[in-house]
C-alpha cells in the first residue's frame, strides 16, 4: 500500500494497492518482472484477490478511525471482460464499501486499444467507482480519451520527473501544463514519483493537489 497525500494539507487521502511477489528466501520480486509472465486469467484472479484484500484493509482502517480511499490498477484486458462490473459490484457489496471510495487506475495505453468501448467504461461509471488515468505521459498520448472519459483523477507518470535535474525548467513546465489541464477539466491531479523534498515542494508550488512517491512514503505491507 502506498500513500497518496494531499500536498496542501499533508493529509493521507488514499492508498494505491500494489502487488509484490515474495520468494521463499524473502526476496521481493517487482511487478514489472512477474506481471508479464501471467496470462489474462491469472491477472484477473490476481486483481480480484487484490481487490478483496484492499477492501478488507479499508474496512479495518475505518474501524480504527482512518477514513481513506483505495486505488487499484485494473489489468489491461479486464475492461473488456463482461463480468468486470459484476465482480466489482459484488466485492463492494460484500465488504459494504461505498463505490466512490474505490478508484480504478487505467493505463493510457490500455485505452488506446480499439477493442475498449465506451460501454465498457460506462459500466464502471454506472457502478459509481472513480476512474484514474494512470501513468499519464508514459505511453502514446491518449488525449482523445482524456476528453471523452470522465476521469476523476489524472496520475502524472513518474518517468516525467526522471530528467528534472538535467532539464529542470522543461520538466517543471510539463508538470505545470498537466496540472493546469487537470484543473481546467475538473480532475484531481496526482504527481507520481516524488522522491525527495525538493520535488514534493515543486509539485506543490505548481499547484498539484496530490502527490505519491518514495519521498512521501514508500509502498508498505
Ligand atoms: O504504474 P503505476 O503508477 O501503478 O506504478 C506504481 C509503481 O511505482 C509502484 O510499483 C511503486 O513501487 C513505484 N513507485 C512509487 N513511488 C515511486 C518513486 O518515488 N520512485 C520510483 N522510481 N518508483 C516509485
Ligand atoms: Mn497505478
Characterization of the model:
It contains 7 helices and 10 strands. With 221 residues, it is α/β, with parallel strands linked by helices. The protein has a single domain (2-156), classed as TIM Barrel (Alpha-Beta Barrel), CATH 3.20.20. An 8-stranded mixed β-barrel has the order 1-2-5-6-7-8-9-10. The protein has a two-stranded antiparallel sheet with strand order 3-4. Helix 3 links the parallel strand 5 and strand 6. The structure holds guanosine-5'-monophosphate (G) and manganese (II) ion. Residues 16, 73, 105, 134 line the site of manganese (II) ion.
Q: What portion of residues is helical?
A: 25-40%
Spatial ordering of strands, largest sheet: 1-2-5-6-7-8-9-10
Share of residues in strands: 15-25%
Give the integer mean of the pLDDT values: 92
Give the strand tally: 10
Written as H for each helix and E for each strand, in order along the chain, the element string is: EEEEHHEHEHEHEHEHE
End-to-end C-alpha gap: 6 Å
Q: Give the overall form.
A: globular
Decide which structural class fits the backbone.
alpha/beta
- What is the count of distinct domains? 1
CATH superfamily: EAL domain
In CATH, the topology is named TIM Barrel
Per CATH, the architecture is: Alpha-Beta Barrel
**What's the total helix number?**
7
Q: Can you list the ligands bound to this structure?
A: guanosine-5'-monophosphate, manganese (II) ion
CATH structural class:
Alpha Beta
Radius of gyration: 17 Å
Largest beta-sheet details: 8 strands, mixed, barrel
Low-confidence stretches: none
Amino acid at each position: 500500500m502506498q500513500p497518496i497525500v494531499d500536498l496542501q494539507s499533508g493529509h493521507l487521502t488514499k492508498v494505491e494497492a500494489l502487488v509484490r511477489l515474495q520468494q521463499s528466501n524473502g526476496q521481493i520480486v517487482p511487478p514489472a518482472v512477474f506481471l508479464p509472465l501471467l496470462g489474462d486469467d491469472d491477472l484477473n484472479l490476481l486483481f480480484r484477490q487484490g481487490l478483496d484484500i484492499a477492501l478488507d484493509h479499508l474496512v479495518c482502517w475505518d474501524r480504527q478511525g482512518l477514513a481513506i480511499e483505495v486505488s487499484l490498477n485494473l489489468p489491461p484486458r479486464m475492461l473488456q471482460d463482461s463480468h468486470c462490473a459484476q465482480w466489482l459490484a459484488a466485492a463492494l457489496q460484500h465488504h459494504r464499501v461505498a463505490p466512490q471510495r474505490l478508484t480504478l487506475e487505467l493505463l493510457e495505453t490500455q485505452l488506446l486499444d480499439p477493442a475498449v468501448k465506451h460501454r465498457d467504461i460506462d459500466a464502471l461509471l454506472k457502478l459509481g467507482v472513480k476512474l484514474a488515468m494512470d501513468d499519464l505521459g508514459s505511453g502514446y498520448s491518449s488525449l482523445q480519451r482524456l476528453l471523452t472519459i470522465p476521469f476523476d483523477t489524472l496520475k502524472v507518470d513518474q518517468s516525467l520527473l526522471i530528467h528534472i535535474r538535467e532539464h529542470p525548467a522543461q520538466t517543471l513546465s510539463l508538470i505545470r501544463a498537466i496540472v493546469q489541464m487537470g484543473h481546467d477539466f475538473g480532475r484531481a491531479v496526482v504527481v507520481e514519483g516524488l522522491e525527495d523534498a525538493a520535488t514534493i515542494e515543486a509539485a506543490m508550488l505548481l499547484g498539484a493537489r496530490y502527490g505519491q512517491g518514495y519521498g512521501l512514503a514508500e509502498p508498505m505491507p
